[in-house]
Structures are given as structure tokens and as C-alpha cells.
Amino acid sequence: GPVLVPILGDQLTRDLASLRGRTKDDSVILMMEVWDEATYVRHHKQKIALIFSAMRHFAEELRDAGWKVDYTKLDDPDNAGSFTGELARAIERHDPRLVSVVEAGEWRVRQDMEQWADKFACEIEILRDDRFICTQAEFDAWADDRKELRMEFFYREMRRKTGLLMEDDGKPTGGEWNYDSENRKPPKDGLAAPERAKFAPDSVTQEVIELVGDRFGDHFGSLDTFGWPVTRDEAEEAADAFFAERIECFGPYQDAMVAGEDDLFHSMLSTSINLGLLDPLELCHRAEQAYRDGNAPLNSVEGFIRQIIGWREYVRGFYWHQMPHLQKANALNAQRGLPEFYWTGDTDMACLADCIRSTRDNAHAHHIQRLMVLGNFALLAGIDPREVQDWYLVVYADAYEWVELPNVAAMILYADGGKLASKPYAASGNYINKMSNYCAGCTYSPSKKTGEGACPFNPLYWHFMDRHRERLEKNHRIGRIYATWDRMGEERQRDYLDSAESFLETLEPAGAGWARAD
Ligand code: FAD
Ligand code: DLZ
Ligand code: SF4
User: What keywords are assigned to this protein (predicted)?
Assistant: First the structure.
């Protein structure tokens, strides 16, 4: 029989390891829309539509290039509903001599994959996903060598490995590894970015949008605004637009937030990168070229490259290094249910409301919104990590567990006890006020510290610091804050704690069934 090559929904790469060196007349490619993947959490409608549409387009592209593609649609009457079930059916149909597959990105799916060799009579080959720059062996060796894992040092290794922004003498271009100090500009009045490239749904996407509306109509989020790139060509066009119009300001305004400006100068390429439509390393080379050609400043280019070969590779290595226990980590013992407003957007905190609106409309929010508004609130309010993890996995079109979980459990919630980040990203209303224009349109005031009308982030901040004093006081990056706390005196402290507690009492926990079927 032929070689059977299953390609998963986030492996839509022409140069995938399992396709390399295969001949077209001796291989059958298997692609599967399956109920299990579409529902293990109740993904945002746009996320499912994006993945199905991109899968269908990719299958078409492969067929046009002469490959045989066996494609199961979600509605096919005999659809077994799972990867393993569909593979079993395909093995019966094709009687392959070999199944060659690239390792799944997520632990859950990889567990299943590892059972295939025992389940099926034919030979199974699981190949390394070499679309990532750092191998797991490399990451593990790096991590096992040190007591503290810090992205910055990992990132330097990746700069050396790739040669990106490196000079012949082994020094980083411009003399520094990191230009973040130039990348914290608050938004000027009226700061607005060029419209991102949006792609009107073609007939394939429209069909998928209908399917999703039909079958997943009660999942979170809107389908109306769908405009994601669904093919490699469209993704390239989106990348072109970013390099032409937005990279210049990408660095300086990376941490800025403006109400109603959902993309600002971000690349909006994460969905395409994660699906496999764009090659992360190629994007980094393009960014470097933009700098060398004098078309983009070093701080923007270095920042962009760091997000990709630094953070993106780092969280993936960290995920596999820490699984499966990362899923259950809860170092701060956070127990509160996720507030209902994360799903409805119904809150009078203007910053949260805008971030949740963007999340619902676009299946996207940019990094600083995910980190310093939505994440910061979940941290300070002590929301149960598992509920926060489910939320992030559901709502973002770019969310796969390997990238979502480290960002949520470790980066925003400190649930790993500080393995990934050196301190919790906790901030009061002052930070959000400085980096955004949200507060001007809010019923609360960021300068009011406690009581009626005070920005809830202010008392929540001190409530958080106070309740985790024992752990955080020892942290050299945050411990000094307790001197300020102690100087306030008991009455002021009591004000903060009472304000926080009355606020926390008002939070309505979300009902069951939003993220997972009951
Ligand atoms: P840009 O700002 O243009 O950045 C360029 C690229 O860098 C991104 O496309 C992405 O590939 C990469 N990148 C940047 N930051 C990170 C990071 N922290 N981790 C990994 N890659 C990064 N990103 C996801 O792809 N999927 C997720 O599920 C996801 N969940 C997140 C959850 C939280 C709590 C936080 C704080 C961040 C999360 N991120 C996630 C990272 C980041 O927010 C998104 O990658 C980014 O907002 C995507 O938009 P963009 O393409 O415009 O990014
Ligand atoms: C996220 C997702 C969804 C919603 N549906 C499918 C699907 O029907 N078929 C498929 O191959 N992949 C899907 N995916 C992406 C997978 O969840 C993702 O490829 C793996 O989980 C990565 O380990
Ligand atoms: Fe958010 Fe507080 Fe500003 Fe309101 S005042 S927008 S709640 S930071």
C-alpha cells in the first residue's frame, strides 16, 4: 500500500517534515475535521471557521499540486469524530505500508498519537516538528542546566543559533540584545494605526461559516467580522502589509492600548504562523532585512524577532518541559470562579469591557490586553487557573494549548510559582491609565485609591500583595513594595483590604457550560 500522511489542522505547511521527500503517486494525505477537536473546549466560532477553512484551502492546494488528498468533512455521515477513529477508517481504506505523521503540538493529541503504534498493525512514524527553531532536547538541556529559566538568556541562544541580528564578531547588532526600554511609549492622543489587511470570505470560507453557525451556534463569539487569512497567499499579503505599514511603530507602541483600536501596530500574524501558513524564521529574516535596508528601526525589528524566536520558542519549550503538571499548577492557590463578564463583556470597568469586546468580535486581543488587563485582573482577583486557561483557549483564534497554557498559567497567573517569569505581572490602575486611554471613558477613577469610584485594580493590587506576602516578600524584584505597604499604617491598609473585599463580593461567577460542555 501507499504511505499515509495525516496532516493536522495546525500543520498546514507545504514543506512539512512528513511531506518532504515523499512522492505524489506513492502517498495519500489524510486530513480530518473531527468533532473531538472542535469541541474539547467550546472554541470561539471564528477559531473553528478559520481552521476548517484553512484546512479545506490547503487540501485544495495540495490536490492542485498533484497530491492525493483524502479529506473527511465534519458532516460526512461516517465521520468517526476523532483523529484515532478517522485514522482507523483510513487505514482500512488504503491499507498503507507506513503512516508518517508530524508530532502533534498539544500534549492531549500527542498522547493519542503515541498509542497508534500499539493500536494499528502497520508501521507508524512520528516525526519531529522542525517548524520550530529549538528542539525539545535542546530546550531540556538548556533548562536542566539552570535553577531559573529566563527568556532573555534563552533568547540570546536563539539569536546565536539563527544568526539573526548578529554581527561577525559575535556581538548583537547595535551592541545590545534588547531594546525594550525604547518600546514602552504610551499612546499619543489620537494614535491610530493603518487598517489591517482583511480578507473577504470566499465560497469555501462562506460554506464553513455556515457550518459553524449551524453546528456551533451557541459557542462564544461573533462570526460576522471574519477576515482572517485562510491561505498561504493571503497570509503573505498580510505579512507584506505589516512590513510595509506597521513595523516601524511596532516597537514603540507595543505596550500601548487605545479604545476601539483593536490591532494598533501589531502584526496580526499569529493565527497564520500557528496554522503553518507562514514560516516564523522567514518572517524574522524579513524583519531583519527591513532594518538592514533602512526601512524599520532596530528597536521595532529586535522586538518583533524577540517575540518569535524568544517568547514563542521559549513558551513551547517550557510547555513540553513542564507537561502534564503545568495544567494543574496553582502555586498561589487561587480558587475563585471566572467572573461571568469574561463571557458577556458586561462590566463597567472600561478597559476590561473593551478587551472582551475585541475578543468577542475578532477572536483576538493584542498582547498587552491579554497580559495587563485581562490577565492582570485574573491574577489580582485570584481566579482559578483552570478556568482562566479554558477561557483563553476558547476565545482566541491563535490559541493552541502549547502556547496558551504557559502564557496563562505561568506568565499571567504565576501558577508555576515563578519558573517562567521572575515576578508576577501585577499592576494597579496607574499602569493601565499610563499605557491606554481607557480610563477617560470609565466610571471608575484610576487616581482614586479606595472606596466609591476607585479603580478596582487599586485595592485589588494591595489585596493581592498582602495575601501573598510570605511568598513575594522574598522576591528581590518585588519584595521592596512591602516597605511602601508597611508605611501606610493599619487604617489605610484596612481601607484597601475592605475595598477589595467588597468589590470581590460583587463578582458573579460564570455559569457552567461556557468553556466546556456540561
Ligand atoms: P505581535 O505582537 O505582532 O507579535 C509577533 C508574534 O510574536 C506573534 O504573532 C506571535 O507568534 C509571537 N508572540 C508574541 N508574544 C508571544 C508570547 N507571549 N508567546 C508566544 N508567542 C508570542 N499567542 C498565541 O499565538 N496563542 C495563544 O494562545 C496565546 N495566548 C496568550 C495568552 C496570554 C495570557 C498572553 C499574555 C499572551 C498570549 N499569546 C498567545 C501571545 C500574544 O498575545 C499573541 O501571540 C499576540 O497577541 C498575537 O498577535 P500578533 O500576531 O499581532 O502579535
Ligand atoms: C483546533 C482544531 C479544531 C477546532 N478542529 C480541528 C479539526 O477538526 N481537525 C484537525 O485536524 N485539527 C483541528 N484543530 C487543530 C487541532 O486541535 C491541532 O492540530 C492539534 O490539537 C495540535 O495538537
Ligand atoms: Fe480600567 Fe481602572 Fe482605568 Fe477603569 S479606571 S479603565 S477599571 S484601569
Answer: Lyase
